[in-house]
Description:
The protein has helices at 4-8, 19-30; strands at residues 44-52, 55-64, 71-72, 86-90, 97-98, 110-112, 119-120, 140-142, 149-150, 167-169, 176-177, 189-193, 208-212. By secondary structure, the chain is mostly beta strands. 27% of the residues are buried.
Amino acid sequence: MKTKEALKLYFEKGDQPTQEQFWEWMDSYWHKEEKIPQDAVETFEKVIPFFDGDKLMGSSIALTIPKNIKQIYNSAYIYGGFNYQITKVIFNEGLEIIGSASFHSQNIKSIDTPSTLKIIKNSAFANQSNNINGNDSLEEIILNEGLEIIEDYAFTVEMSKSPTIKNLYIPNTVQSVGQNAFFIPSLQTVSAPAGLDLSTAGIPATAVITYRDLPE
Length: 216
């Protein structure tokens, strides 16, 4: 198939395209091969099917954050009662701050923060759960080395939301954890740097907290 540049030559002023040239032009629309690569798209929200086993429950959103973003604004993606939720987020390298309630009450399954992130504001990921048609909830939190501050209620999940996350690793670089930041009733083990105050973090009393010695 000819490129669009070659096709343009058929239709310059004074030209009389042949029938064959005309159909080449039409064919370029019906069977276009010049696709935009996905990694060239700055940001997009992709609608994906949402399943419960072999049952189709509806649709959800997979979100990719643009590569040039340093901060996600407060309440940017807070759930607003629509018939779909965000279930997946790909964060960009370069992101430094996730604002208050940015993803409050969405249904993100795995939260994996980029290596550049420094601050997670209050309630940023609070109450991740299915608010539409099920009991599924948060399954995994992967926090980056370089993260410094986790504010109040950042990852709070109510027991009624049926969280399944069992293990949590808090990076060595974290300096403070806010009130009930990790109020996640399903937690069983927590690994944290020595000296980090977790007394008000909301970690269940039944969870085993192990403090790691910091590298010299």
